[in-house]
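Protocol step 4 of 6: record predicted structures for both targets in the notebook before any analysis. Target 1:
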Amino acid sequence: MKKVYTDPTAALAGLLRDDMMVMCGGFGLCGIPDELIEAVRASGVKGLTIVSNNAGIDGVGLGKLLDTRQVRKMISSYVGENKEFARQYLGGELEIEFNPQGTLAERIRAGGAGIPAFFTKTGVGTKVAEGKEVRAFDGEQYVMERGLFADLAIVHAHTGDTEGNLRYRMTARNFNPMMATAAKMTVAQVEHLVQPGAIDPDTIHTPGIFVKRIIEVGAREKRIEQRTTRKRAESTPAAAAGGGTH
């Protein structure tokens, strides 16, 4: 079965339609499938339900789909860093199903494992639990959450082979691996495409059985939303003069 495609448009051909649910991997701007997002935008599909931790920033990542009004609903945990996301939500133009971040991750994992629902203590007694079944186990209250399973998952990996085995790097492991298992069709973009056997089996995060189509996009610009650094300690006089112990 051929899995390697020449470009994002070819990789998504025949998969996109209006009103479908799409899972989009990544965390903030780390590990987002930017090339595939651009292809979704160019296709013109609309009414999409997007499952993603957040929606990138204005004009970047999923922010591009918000700009073109192709998204009807977001299932996510975070709105910050994207003014258009917040504006559409507060203006009643965009439906949002908010989830605690851990609950969102578990809903996706459960969907990929074939688990239709589970109970968690997170959100009990808050708006998160409104309209949901609450049940007692061992004297404690738990709220029922449904697993998520999408029509399509688009993910980004650092390295993949032609059989679809994927290896993620650092923060890009957030949401990408679990989303790759939780959709009818998973399409991956990778920075480096290699031959089978080139990836140490012990370092494969997503087995190729979950990935149906793959494209190579090369090294990406590593963007972040906010650069936060800790002040460096001031050098002591001895260190500044080249002295001190070694």
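Target 2:
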Amino acid sequence: MTQDVEKVSLVGAGPGDPDLLTVKAQRLVREAHVLLHDDLVPAVILALATARCEIANVGKRCGSKGITQAEINERMVEAARRGLRVVRLHGGDPAVFGRLGEEIDALEAAGIPFEIVPGVTAGSAAAASLGVSLTDRRKSSRVIIVSGHRATKAAPFAATDWKEVAREDATLVVYMPGNNFMRLREELLGAGLSPETPAVMVSHATMPAEQRAAATLATIHLLPHMDSPAVLLLGRSLDCRQRKQDARLAWKEAELILSSL
């Protein structure tokens, strides 16, 4: 008898807080026979798997080459062909700066069915933890997500067209920003972004080990080193002082309207 091929689930684990897992992600982790996870997925989430589940760390954090992407693809395909329920568990959202595209290609080439389960991505998790909105119809009408990680360490931001993303009406979210903030500062200032643009660096968003530091574009090179995973947010919607002032003005306007009735 031919073994039925199982579907592979490509699942987002979110920023690490198990309370931020989707209900579907929790169910799939509990039902998995094989769980292939990134380095950044914490033990508290892996503990949701059953004792029968084969759990393997297939992460490549900090440039580690312990396992290649081709090997990850092969493990997914082989387990699915054996009729095992495979969960490929990505940190954050698998579609945001992960290797989802490569894994989709490999599964399609092998004729393996798959599903994608999105997760809370680090940028929105960091904003939520800070108590700010990524967009604000009064000052930030768009979110632009870029990666600071490049294969060439000497020029980590060289491949980005900063004139396209350095917009006063946008919140800029830089994933894997590294530590070369002087170069990023020069790129964004050169592209015309105001030196007074608020900036916040957040590490381990939503987790007990979360760290954060605030600056402006002019002073981001003074931000302290923070452990991965970290994101850098820049934009006027992050300005807490301005937001509070706007709220006070709106409240005064409402009071004037009410008093005139």
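Step 5 preliminary note on target 2. DSSP finds eight helices and ten strands in the chain. The domain at 122-241 is CATH 3.30.950.10 (Methyltransferase, Cobalt-precorrin-4 Transmethylase; Domain 2).
Proceed to step 6 after PI sign-off.
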